[in-house]
Design brief:
Mean pLDDT: 90
Radius of gyration: 21 Å
Order of helices and strands: HEEH
Number of domains: 1
Strand content: 25-35%
Strand order of the largest sheet: 1-2
Structural class: alpha+beta
Low-confidence stretches: none
Shape: rod-shaped
Largest sheet: 2 strands, antiparallel
Helix content: 40-55%
Distance between the termini: 13 Å
Number of helices: 2
Length: 73
Amino acid sequence: MKTKSFGIVIIILGIVMMSYTGFNFVTTEKVVDIGLIEINQEKNHPIQWSPVIGLILIVGGIVLLILDKKTDN
């Protein structure tokens, strides 16, 4: 049962990774700080991955499901 659950989670993760090929997170960096004047800059940090990784995860999850069915018999 543990292998089947893990396989399903990997398939779902693969589908999500194929749908969304990345995300951004923003950090605030202080540029100037002179007494009462403070200037901040927001920086984007993109994280990208290939949809092929999602496809590999889907195939791996399917393989785990097939192996789990073979061991149940």
